[in-house]
Amino acid sequence: MKLLITGAKGQLGRQITSMIENKRSRLGDIDKIYYDAELKSLSSKELDITRLEDVLELTHDFKPDAIINCAAYTNVDKCETDMDNAFKVNALGARNLAIAADKIHSKILQVSTDYVFDGNSKSPVREYEVPSPESVYGKTKLLGEGYIRNFCGQYFIVRTAWLYGRYGKNFVYTIMNAGKDKGHLNVVNDQIGNPTNAEDLAYHILKIIRTNEYGIYHCTGKNECSWYDFACKIIEYSRINCKVYPMTSDKLDRAAKRPAYSSLDNMMLRLTVGDEMRPWDMALKDFINTNIL
Questions:
Q1: How far apart are CA 262 and CA 119, in angstroms?
Q2: Which strands make up the sheet holding 38-42, listed edge to edge?
Q3: Residue ranges of the RmlD-like substrate binding domain (predicted)?
Q4: Per-residue pLDDT reduced to its tens digit, 265-282
Q5: SS3 for 211?
Q6: From CA 230, how far away is CA 228, in angstroms rounded?
Q7: Which CATH class is domain 2-170+196-222+262-279?
Q8: 137 is catalytic
Q9: Where are the chain's structural domains?
Q10: Is the separation of the CB atoms in 165 and 199 below 8 Å?
């Protein structure tokens, strides 16, 4: 199997690459199809997905059986003012990879986000719900989804949320560092979602992409919580001496609106390849025990 991973220096791209190289995950062994895979993991400097000619040339030469697009412009607030670059990476980049995948009859898996929804739901959102993003980040990611669907027949779209992992910056490391430095933290308690361990997500992406179960997936940690709940568990599990206090989102000066409720239901996952995502608190405890303590 020949596999192309874009955005390979990000936390998810690095997690998938590491999992393939190690041939296993915390959830168990990965499929043997990946043991002898020819893997090309490229950063944005090595492949600029916003340049169609570059993407077409590389995919023509390498001819991957599958493409996993982890590249994204993820600075949610900066997207509000840097709209052109957000559009180029999140929408045109996805379009270019979809066009290229279709030309060589490759599968493509696009990583997307809970931000494609407006946050007004009262129960976990399923794949058939109509997206209605309220931020530039969400709008450009949704357009990227549309391009994937329009330009390549063999596609998987995997929406995730509140992602953290061993590599790069994320909420877990931010809370731990701030907790050690300050001894007290204020964290919003009026935004609800699903913390997702990159280990779990990467494992399921590799499960999905070896199949022909095409379509849209939600793939997040099981059960839901607020950012405040999430922060409390991070402090508890990492044994940091810090007090965490709840606050409301209106106390924060942010350019982009966050979904108030973005809990996702992994319906497609459990009906096809199987949902082995762990409860968010169990996956978090394992992450901290394995990587930090």
A1: 5
A2: 38-42, 2-6, 66-69, 107-113, 155-160, 215-218
A3: 1-290
A4: 999 999 999 999 999 999
A5: coil
A6: 5
A7: alpha beta
A8: yes
A9: 2-170+196-222+262-279
A10: yes
